[in-house]
Design goal:
single chain; 325 residues; mainly beta; 7% helix; 42% strand
């Protein structure tokens, strides 16, 4: 019974990962480099299946939440360069990315049947990076004069449903000077992938929190900014429902060593069969034509558990698992 429950849990998780959408923010028309978009006309910037709330006060040039940027300045320190990533571009040199002023936090909402996320890329803003590297009028130089101060800049991400945060969280250090060996200290200066699968699915959105070792009477001294790109959501198709039970198929022999056969419903041919390993990497894919019995050669697979999904347009996917000895 324990193994059966574990299998059902993992199959359902795999099923939820089958449909994904990436928000790369290139849908925003930024006509030239070093331009940014703030003051969203409807209060948010929407890309892929996410919505990034934005609040902007033109009278005081004050904002919280998110902005969309194509800024490239990686050298100028200070508040006047608050919209640039320290990389000077998006992931793999793409023009656009998102930047947040998380004071005291930022929020991301899932839209269009998205229920969670597989991950995204993060890096420091130029403003925060230069402040931590050299210090400024408000914040200290990380590591101090000797380099021995155990400073850190931490991003914590939590999911929420119906405005209630779930127990799981994901953390990534945007700067970490707590190592005994100072040569291991770092300030994040490149786009780095953050795995969000530990947060699970069935979420309405995410909350982002920044904490620092450098704090004063009015809170954190380190500039509360970071940059984000290529955010990938876990999506349900419009015909799916969060409470709908997945259609599960059996494979034989299971466990398998050489070959494994998956019998598909005779009235459900013409779909796509995909098999992934436990890390989510695709190991097999096939378009099904006119045969209900799908025989797969598993001899090259490593030992472990594999998950398959059979999808047809507009239908709830069929799912299952194969154990390779």
């Amino acid at each position: 019974m324990k193994n059966t429950l574990l299998l059902l849990l993992m199959v359902n998780l795999f099923n939820s990962l089958a449909s994904q959408t990436q928000a790369d923010f290139e849908n925003f028309n930024i006509i030239s480099p070093d331009i940014y978009l703030n003051n969203a006309p409807w209060g948010s910037f929407d890309a892929g299946n996410i919505s990034l709330p934005n609040t902007y006060d033109a009278a005081f040039d004050y904002w919280t939440g998110w902005a969309i940027s194509a800024a490239t300045d990686t050298e100028t320190p200070g508040f006047t360069n608050q919209y640039a990533s320290i990389v000077g571009s998006g992931v793999e040199g793409s023009p656009n990315y998102a930047v947040t002023y998380a004071s005291p936090s930022s929020q991301l909402l899932f839209t269009n049947h998205a229920t969670g996320a597989t991950g995204f890329y993060v890096t420091n803003s130029t403003y925060a990076y230069r402040s931590m590297l050299n210090g400024d009028a408000f914040a200290k130089q990380f590591g101090g004069e000797t380099g021995d101060d155990p400073d850190f800049f931490l991003l914590t991400i939590k999911g929420f449903t119906d405005a209630v945060e779930t127990a799981s969280m994901v953390e990534i250090y945007l700067a970490d000077y707590r190592f005994a060996d100072n040569t291991q200290d770092y300030l994040l200066s490149e786009w780095t992938y953050v795995d969000l699968t530990p947060l699970g699915t069935g979420l309405d959105g995410l909350n982002f929190y920044l904490t620092s070792s450098d704090n004063g009477a009015f809170g954190m001294n380190t500039p509360a900014y970071f940059c984000m790109d290529n955010f990938t959501t876990v999506d349900l198709t419009p015909t799916d429902d969060r409470n709908q039970e997945a259609r599960i198929l059996s494979a034989y022999p299971n466990p398998a060593t050489n070959q494994c056969t998956i019998p598909l419903p005779a009235n459900a041919l013409g779909g796509n069969l995909v098999v992934r390993n436990s890390l989510g990497s695709v190991v097999y894919t096939s378009m099904v034509s006119n045969t209900a019995l799908q025989t797969i050669d598993v001899t090259a697979w490593s030992s472990g558990l594999y998950f398959f999904i059979y999808t047809l347009p507009g239908q709830t996917p069929y799912t299952g698992a194969i154990q390779r000895l």
